[in-house]
Fold:
Amino acid sequence: MNIIFMGTPDFAVPSLQLLLEEGYNVTTVVTQPDRPKGRKRVLTPPPVKVEAEKHGITVLQPEKLRHADSVEVLRQLKPDLIVTAAYGQILPKSILELPAHGCINIHASLLPKYRGGAPIHHAILQGEPVTGVTIMYMAEGLDTGDMISKVEVPITDTDTTGTMLEKLSAAGADLLKRTLPDLLAGQIQATPQNDADAVYSPNIRRDDELIDWSRSAVEIWNQVRGLNPAPGAYTFWNGEVMKVWTCANPRGSAPQSRSFTEVVRAQHTPGTVLNSSESGLEVMTGNGTLWLTEIQPSGKKSMKVVEFIRGVKMPEGTVFGH
Structure:
């Protein structure tokens, strides 16, 4: 049984580890090319490549997998199964048809919801109480293949995209462990997706990161959580970008939060700072107020608001977004 594993980021690493721990014969790993990262643009290998090299597994890093030479290399490897997890490229039909047991993908959502490249981000951005992992047969469309198995994972009020990535990567590996024996034994009855229920989750754009203070406190809180740890939500302060990394839960845990009806009489513009204290910065939104607890002013490191206000005055009436 020859297995080719395709994956790139941290999300895919536990699934590769699971295959190796269970004794499956992973002959080759396919991942994205090394990319420059950080302010110094240091050429950095993908996490999956790092893990594969620890085990002496051959690593391929084609820029475009659909090129004829890349397809021929995989054909010569004669895979019985291809397992993918957040690889980053759509597999062409010429590759999908290679393995006898097909190509399967470990996708971080409950399909058909949140097809696409940023399912974890969008689940939190939309305020979902639960998400999960779906293992599916791959098809030529974007995450459109028949579903093999699923597992649900709750999203708590303290979760961010970062914490959910860890939970879902572990859940995906466990689901793979439970799914593979039946799949290889030919005992799987896959379920087609209902395209009418499909929701897409495209990669995050710069516009998605900008905070619109006219939205509700809950919506902005979800935006901040959904963009943490990357790329981060931001606003403008004194004409410069200021990242917002954490906020208090406006649905109950925020200190001294005022309701929309209590603050609307003051006719504050959304984005106006109403309170600056050790509890954070209370900011007016389109519906209710939101307490910012961790921020990153331009040119500075991320810091708790309590640390920030010790050195910088943030008077009430300051308006973000300008």
User: Anything to note?
Assistant: The first helix runs from residue 13 to 21. The chain has ten helices and 15 strands. Residues 206-311 form a domain with the Methionyl-tRNA Fmet Formyltransferase; Chain A, domain 2 fold (CATH 3.10.25.10). The CA atoms of residues 245 and 294 lie 5 Å apart.
